[in-house]
## 1
Amino acid sequence: MPILVTGGAGFIGSAFVHAWCTQSPEPIVTLDLLTYAGNLDNLATLPAAAPHRFVRGDVRDPGTVRHLLDEVQPRAVVHFAAETHVDRSIKGADAFVSTNVGGTACLLQACTDHLSDRSPAERRRFRFVHVSTDEVFGSLGPDEPAFHRASHYRPNSPYAASKAAADHLVRAWHVTHGLPTITTHCSNNYGPRQFPEKLIPLCIARATAGETIPIYGDGCQVRDWLHVDDHCTALRAVLDRGVPGSTYLVGGHGECANIDLVRSLCGALDEARPTGAPHASLIRFVTDRPGHDRRYAIDASSTRDELGWVPRHSLTDGLRETVRWYLANEVWLERIRSGAYASWVREQYGP
């Protein structure tokens, strides 16, 4: 039986599709609206014989979602589709509420309706995996313990609040309707095919173009960095062995201050493409964004103990690998950097 992936043309979703098509003979169907961060180029290198089908559509459209569920008859839905960039949510939250909250509610109801006329065995086997974020838990102090599955929700950005609302809907559908849902909370992902609004590809793109590298505030905000391939391995473990109604935290054991991360990136660029002057000379500090969380950290021990998952990439090796991918795929990057994206970056960070 196939699985259905929403947002499968985005960064993490497309990485999951790639991993699935190389590791499983089961069919996989991608539903994606192809908004600014959805990119069919992300799926262009799938093997010709991959058991993959792409459908352009909106998770907020009940008719589209229900028709696709009835047609595909998936054994699971893995829900990535979301607006995810904090800066955009600060400038305007409507799309985040509409997609992250409304889209998740639409999908949950469509799955509930779809399962209503399925056999008891099919209902028990079905899984709805909701991919969330550690940002719903707010900001940690420098000495506070890492987030865990019992951490309180304290979202501080419109993006985080919209994901928190979606998490609560997922839990409510499990309790009220018996939908077999599982929620995951991941830390900051990085790796190939990431849309270059995010810190790592933004820095690589600007540094390779000889442009300044903007760093918010003092650059001492701490994040736990998770390679996207490790995240996809964790999601596969959740899908295969996760317990409905549970939550699982997925982190990379890669806590690092933003300024240190960017300096490491610049060092990797110096090694891979020396230009005479060190790339770190391009770093510029810019006004911090409102409500900027100071620190995130993930305690993924319960996921390790219950599912046997551990991350395989060290941050040092993962960053070098990521730099090499972007340098080898400059056409992919340039296609994104043109047009409206370039205007948005100028507005956000200056020339």
## 2
Amino acid sequence: MSTAEQNRRLVWKRVTESPAKPTSPSGRSAGGSISSLRSIRVPDQLLGWIIPVSTLVLWELLARAGVLPPNWLPAPTVIARTIYELAVAGDLWRHVGITLGRVALGFLLGAAAGTILGGLTGYASLARKLLDPLLQSLRSVPSIAWVPLFLLWLGIQESSKIALISLGAFFPVYLNLSVAMRHVDPKLLEVGRLYRLTSFQMVRRLILPAALPEYIVGLRSGLGLAWMFVVAAELLGASSGIGFLMVDGQMTGRAAIILASVILFAVFGKATDWMMNAVGRKLLGHRAR
């Protein structure tokens, strides 16, 4: 076999055994480009911002193009300027402070009552048979149905608003704690009996730690409902608060005020939920240690 024939066979063997990778127009291999794209990782903290930021940008563009009527849906920059003007005038912080105070007091009262009754019905079967059917039936009553009764009993002052917010925070805390305590692992309770723990020690050292994750979920749900109920409370007969700003914007035909109030509710509701979640994670981490 001639030397030229041997060289041709060698070249053909290399071509068939090692196929060339497809390359991009810039000269880089396509496989390398795809792998580099796959290696790009967006931090988890930024993933939740993609849709809100994209929505705001699209909203701004459509508003500036005249697609969205300014008296119905003003641009986000207009709403931001409205919030800034309220903050500079000092009205914003007064209304926000009053709403935060109402939510804090109502949530504390409702969560405390939910914790006491939830723990009682979760631990004692007699209390559960006596109280749980009544509380479960009251849980199905819409929030707006309580407003006339609270106004009749407590008047139009702060007490009726606090009572309505407390009612909203009560049921999630009660339900989650009661169910969590009833579903504690029986083997865990058997261990407590073997060590001859008293009822108080069983609750403090075994039952409550086991029910803590569901209890924290109930607290977060109760806080979320407290924010929902404060809207109902301030829309009906309030002269201050973020809900009052919404009514004022409606009466004066200013959509920017209404949307600014909605955004403020969303921001402060999310901030308080984040704080509650952080406290819950710290408690769970402390329990794990």
## 3
Amino acid sequence: MNAVFAPLERKSRSVLVFEALREKIQAGFWRPGERIYTEAELVTAFNVGRSTVREALNLLKASNLVYTVPGLGTFVSDQSLRVSDPLCLNPENVRDVLQVMEFRVGYEPYCASLAARRVSEGEIATLLSYVKRQENNLSSEKDLAEFAEMDMAFHCLIAQATRNILFAHSFELIREHLLKQQVISASYAERRGKALQYHQQIIQAFTERNPKQAEWVMREHVRETRNAISALLKGDAGQILIKEAI
């Protein structure tokens, strides 16, 4: 190993490891598609515990700087593939919102199937924390934004848990539109309750490592959400703006 890392300061060690690795990646020490050091090698290089290294790697994944291939290791993402809204979809346009919902019906069930095989115990715990926060404001009208944000974070983590960079990038493409849909849906208490039930069932399927069940539940979830959004956005799908009366 030829990389030289600066001594760690007295603050969050996982963040410091993340920042040091991010600097190496951005400087080109590892090229896109190249495997970075193993967990064991990073533990030795930084003189930290394995849990610290894993947290740092999760931060890298969340930043789309790396991706993991089970059994092979962690690899540097190709930043040239980052999506910056090339389809010019408008989150305020009803037709575009409904197109995104149609895409989700085909995209997210398979994401859930892959994630059921590959999701880590730590990621399952994070999904549970999102659901817990949704439970806390389930009956409140004051925290709709947080409910919607936790909903989006839930689906985002599932895309990342596929360990497939294309699924993760596809989610980034629809992130803004998904948040719009979640805010619309979260404005109705009944919709919040149904979303929470589906999320709990998905987590159960992940815990049992049941890809078929995860795929089925997710398909039902996004189909019902699509139908509900379509019903809520009554009128001509060609209208310009979604009214902000939510």
## 4
Amino acid sequence: MSPTSRPLRKLGFLTIGLFDETDPRRGHESTLEIIELGERLGFDSAWVRHRHLQYGISSPVAVLSAASQRTSRIELGTAVIPLGWENPLRLAEDLATVDLLSGGRLNPGVSVGPPMHFDQIKDALYPDTADAEDFGYARVERLLDFVRGKPATDFSGVEGFEVFSDRVQPHSPGLGRRMWYGGGSLRSARWAGEHGMNLLTSSVVKAEDPDGPQGFAEIQLSHIRAFRAVHPDGEAARVSQGLVVIPTDSATPQQRARYEEYAALRLPRTTSPQGPARLLFAPDLVGTSDEIAERLHAHAAFREVDEVAFALPFSFEHEDYVQILTDMATKLGPALGRTRAA
């Protein structure tokens, strides 16, 4: 381990949960089986992506509710729920319910911004209020307030035979400290820190400052440091890194060839910022666990974190994920200095 690296404390993974339109149950079952495998292998956390009007998990809270009943230890996260599709009060109720059912293992990650392809779906999503909806940080603040137990109404008490609460019920006391923000810009990192959230970083950042750091790792490092500089917990504030990592220790030659081809097809987008938003992507890491560990220890942002949620590639087969997760847990984790969870 590099002497400048933080010891790796939590090893997690992230999956998109793809499914075939003709057999969606099988895809969802595959995701649940992968989460169960993650617990058996000793992973600390399993995270699911969120996709609307696509062939991936559209209801991660429901999927994680099912996962909570098939597991007993592994933490369960969302990376991330786009709040533009959600009512914060209703989402707070769902999150608290699943957190209680899981025994306090839920780690909800969220993001803001207009829903993707908003002009095409706004009439279905917000037929009467599309022009009035606020898709900024205020939406997260509402969710945080409800999750953390602030009043949602000025009415409470007994009415007839019914009892009413002025705050969201059920209330899960520890959930407020396990709320994550998925940020890829300096502004979002600072905002998350100022509001006492945890920070989810991924394989995408905004190269927004022409006078600032230019490489992916250096940009991501600047976000992490800006986040911790304003967070109430300072250097102890939680940050999780979500690079795409594909260890090949036990892969077949055919699997290795497919993994390398996948990474090669995605490599051109990592050489320069993409599009008007100047998005910069990290290269996928493919190789033996020792090779990947060496590259991570040289990664400036990785050296600043002690939690990871390595992203599984979108389009691989169930058997590929089993091999990748097994190598992550048994080979890559130890190579990064992490001790398997009990």
